[in-house]
Amino acid sequence: MENIFMLKLLNIGLFFFASSVLFGQELNHLIKKYSEDSKLEVVNHLSEIDKEERVALYIEEEFIGDLSMYRTLNPDEIRSVDINKEAFKLHNVNFDGKIIISYKDDYQPEYIP
Fold first, then answer.
1. Residue 82 has what pLDDT?
2. Which of 34, 41, 44, 100 could form a disulfide with 58 if both were Cys (CB 3.0 to 4.6 A apart)?
3. For the chain, what are the domain ranges?
4. pTM of the prediction?
């Protein structure tokens, strides 16, 4: 019984060693996506998203939230979209503008506050 346990343990160790050597995987080491001495400029467009202007989203005259709620809207039921670029403050939060959406008359979505 002890020999079977040792054999399994040895196989697991051999598997991890072989996978790190054969497939180029290194345990406990993060692979860098670029060289430290590279002359190429690395541009991260995702960091610019965090600096995006904060915009309030309104349905008719009711504040719904910021742009994180935008993907929950049904584009087939939108009648009009108005954009106001004036900065304002709401509930101690500064917004750089607002998007006001009007739905078609027969469509009334429900939002959970």
1. 93
2. 100
3. 54-103
4. 0.49
Which of 50, 49, 67 lies closest to 58 in space, CA to CA? 67
Q: 39 in helix, strand or coil?
A: coil
Residue with tokens 């009007």: 102
Question: Tens digits of per-residue pLDDT, 23-51?
Answer: 555 545 444 555 667 676 665 544 443 44
Q: Which two tokens stand for residue 99?
A: 């998007």
Beta strands in the chain (DSSP E): 55-59, 62-66, 78-84, 88-90, 93-95, 97-103
Identify any residues that bridge with 98 across adjacent strands, giving them in sequence order: 56, 84
Compute the C-alpha angle 54/55/57, nearest 5°.
Answer: 145
